[in-house]
Amino acid sequence: MSPEAQRGLKRAGLILLIGGGFLAVALGIGWVQTQRSAQTAADTSPVPIGGPFTLMDENGQAVTDQTYRGKWLLVFFGFTHCPDVCPTALNDIALTLDQLGPLAASVQPLFVTVDPERDTPEIVKDYTDAFHPSIVGLTGTPEQIADTAKTYRVYFKKVPQGDTYTMDHSGITYVMAPDGKFAAHFSPRTPIDTMAAKLRGLISGKKS
Amino acid sequence: MKIVALLLALLCATSTVQAADLTVRDAWARATAGQSKIGSAYLTLKNTGATADRLVSATAPVAGAVELHTSIQDGDVMRMQKLDTIDLAPDATVEFKPSGLHIMLVDVAAPLKQGARFPLTLTFASGQNVTVEVAVMGPGASGPTVTHQH
Ligand SMILES: [Cu+2]
User: Fold this and answer.
1) Among the listed residues B45, B14, B17, the one whose alpha carbon sits nearest the alpha carbon of residue B131
2) Do A168 and B77 touch (CB under 8 A)?
3) Do B142 and A192 touch (CB under 8 A)?
4) Fold (CATH) for A3-204
5) How does pLDDT run across B19-43, given as a tens digit for each residue?
6) What's the burial of A9, exposed, middle or buried (CB within 10 Å: 0-12/13-18/19+)?
């Protein structure tokens, strides 16, 4: 073997070694992220979030996840007998849309009620329109709502309060890509600027 | 719409009501959204006295019932809880604000419209009653004045 070839072999070995090291680190990071996402449903989550659903929109039309293909979805679960947390979330979505300007045309916010008992299509329509005309309210049968929540791995629970009840519910806003796949999520109280910047990046990245 | 809201906010400087040892300021509420008969009001309470007091109840002619509530963030889950009373230690300031302490207006007879005002009476364990005027802001407002986000 020529000295040239020996040197080449050594270099190849070194590259392999370094490459292997990088791979190990990358795998390590991947593992840590997987562990983390299992708890917080982060962007890197290996288990799919979202998927097929069948619901009724605010105009009483049956809709499925397919109805909204081609749009970036912002999916938030809430209920209209919620004067404190839900208006904040919907207002944040409205202000995010404002910040997106023309890009907002490719975004469809969906407000899925976890209280189908009280929230009829007409009620969710009037409620969501108070915050932004482009937010669509979705309701359905209790089974459809439960199935959709399960698909999105969203927690909700009816809690008696005096002679009425309130709903505990996840405060996460999900971002779904135009192909229906999970793209990102926002925890409760994520600043509007952060949401708008993330969406702008996602939308423009997809276009170019 | 936002400009109108801003002008309204400027016109209606929020008031401060002072009772013997209690100060209530910046009372505001969100406009009810759509057909919702549930509203939420917020304010800042200060006990300026040397003895502890407790907010025990509230009433408003615009609502069938008024309850003291708090919203709790538990991980990513939001919960709303009813409180029987709210403690006011000497010199303590208690702030009601979105996603936290709120005064829940139940069975609101007519929609609360942005720009409207209504009285709210707070009753304390000491026997004091304090009536404040509540300014109705937008349905998703985050405070008593309009902050422009752009
Ligand atoms: Cu409440």
Assistant:
1) B17
2) yes
3) no
4) Glutaredoxin (3.40.30)
5) 678 999 999 999 999 999 999 999 9
6) exposed
